[in-house]
Design brief:
Number of domains: 3
Oligomer: single chain
Shape: globular
Strand order of the largest sheet: 1-2-3-4-5
Order of helices and strands: HHEEEEEHHEEHEHEEEEEEHEEEEHEH
Structural class: alpha+beta
Number of helices: 9
CATH architecture of the largest domain: Alpha-Beta Complex
Helix content: 25-40%
Strand content: 15-25%
Distance between the termini: 56 Å
Amino acid sequence: MSLGEASYRELAARLARDAEIICQELLPGGRIIGSEYRCRDVNGGQGKGKSGGSLAVCLKGKRRGRWADFADPQTYKGDMLHLVAAAQGCSLSDAAEWARQRYGLTVTRRDSRGRRREIRPRRVRLFDELPGPGRNSNREWAFEIWKSRSEPIAGTLGETYFRTRGITIPLPPTLRYSQALYHGWTKLHYPAVIAAAQAPNGRFAGIWRIWIADDGSDKADIVPARAGLGAGKGCAVRLAAAGPELGTAEGVEDCLAVMQALPELPMWAALASSWLPGLQVPDLVKSLVIFPDEDPEHTRKDGSSYWPGQDAARVLRRRMLREKRAARIAWLREVGLDPNAVLRRPGP
């Protein structure tokens, strides 16, 4: 079978050869036990006890790539394409398109005149359906905004907002734009950047809203000018696919600034200093670079001092080290700075 004729069987076989990497990407939090990758369920996570969880993916031998969730083996089982569909909350055909995109494959078919035509895989839209259990009104409303009340960011005031902040690199599809997004604190509508926040398993978790000025030159002059909806601790706006080394910062603008300066480093935005310590990354990430905001000193009610951005970065670094990953903090060494502020500084 040629590479151009990427059938379901061929795609499943290719995914099976990369089963360990695929499991780490789609089912984060699991672990390898013997010849199997084990996790709690199709959302990933570590199961209780020595078994490592009820979902098992075979990584070796003739059954490599076959899997089943023994908590519900009638529903959750099959080959690697079925696993992609279950983990991504999509159809089997969309899982196949996802695999074709991953490997850069095409499909060759005959048209009505019998001529062979090469059909490139269609681009699968992010989050075509609200996936996963535990739906709530905030998350459903966030998904409605993302899917039906926003548009691609290219050519909009949303793109203007990032360009005026010195960001020139292409903007990822996890960023969209709304011409008029309701601001609950002022009861008014403003243009806004909409960023998709993803849960540790890659599924849609909510949105991060950045209300901007009518000309896109800055954030809107309102409080708050940024807020989440549906997203929470452990989620992130993924501005690039994770690799063995991953970077993180609080803001979307900060992450894009770092990616512009360091094109080889993918970045995920944790969105808030209080969420940064809980950031969850896939097992394939072996090294994490943390870019904290250099916040000024704050005072607790008991009179003790703390620094939100810096303290959060230290907590995250310690957790990464406990997980046997390399981790370092890229300090800016000046109070009040964040990575995007550095990018926007005039002069050398």
